[in-house]
Amino acid sequence: MRAIVRDTYGDADVLHLADVPKPTIKPNEVLVRVTAAGVDRGAWHAMTGLPQIARLGFGLRRPRNPVIGLDLAGVVEAVGRDVTDFKPGDEVFGEGSSSWAEYAKAKQHRLLHKPAHLTFPQAAVIPTSAATALHMLLLAPSAPTPPGRDVLVIGAGGGVGSFAVLLAKAHGDTVTAVCSTGKVEAVRGFGADRVIDYTREPLTGSYDLIVDIAGNRSLAQLRALLKPRGILSIAGGEQGGRFFGGLERNLQALAISPFLKQTLRAPVVIAKRADLAALTSIPSPLQRTYPLEEARTAMHNLATGQVTGKIALTL
Description:
Pfam families: ADH_N, ADH_zinc_N_2. By secondary structure, the chain is an alpha/beta fold. The chain contains ten helices and 15 strands.
C-alpha cells in the first residue's frame, strides 16, 4: 500500500511516498481504508523527533515506525474477531496508528461512526486537536462547566486554538483570541468576540480561563492575566530547548499549582469516544486539503505557520 514515510528525523524534506505492507489487525482492532488523515503538531513531533525526550517513544536513533499520523476518517475494511461495534463498510473516524497511508488500524474504542453531515476531511481533523481543546477548556462530557466565562485563547489561529475558539463560543463563553496578523480575519470568522494581533497590541484584561497553545510566554506573564481563582491550561512544546522542547514550563505549572489559588494545568489528552461524539456538532475549522503525495508541502506549511485552522491529507 502507499504511505508517507520517513526513515530518519528531520524537517518536511524527510517525508516521501513509499510502498509498505498493509497493517495486520489484532482481535480488538479495526482495519480502516483511509479516506482522509489529519495533519497536526503531533505528526510534526513524530517527524522531527523533537523534543528529543519524545524519542523514548518514537525510537532513539531513528524512527521505530516509519509511517506517521494518528487522526483518520475512512471506511472499515475488516474487523478483528472481538470487535462488536463496527462492520466492513461502516464510515468511521477517530485515532489510529500510522494514518498517513491507504490503510491504518485502530482500536474499536478509539473510533466513532462518522456522522453524515461531516465530510471525511472534516471528520479526520477532529480527534487530536479538538479533543485537546475540549479538555483544555474543561468542557469534556465528564466535567460539565457553566457558560459565561471570560476566556483568552493564545495561539487561536492553529489547530487546537481554532477548535478552542469554536468550542468556547458554542458553550456560551466570551472569547478573546490571540494570533498573528495574517490570521486575524479567519480567527474572527471562528466567532471570537475580540481578536488581538500580538505583533501590534499587548495582551490585556483579566480572564477566568486562559488556554495557551503558543508556548512562548512565562507562567508569571500568564498568571498576571488570570483572575485570582482563574484557570490556566497550557499545551505545546515547540518553543523550548531541543531535549524538553518547552515541557519544562508544563512541569513547572503542575509543580506550583497546588500552592496557588489559581489553577495551572497541562493536560495530556487521548481522544475518547465520548469526546468524539461531543465534537461532531461544531463548525469545522478545516482550511484546505492536500493529496497524500503532497504531505511534504502540507507539513512544511504547518511548520512555517502558513496554516490557519486545520488541514488534512486525502486519498
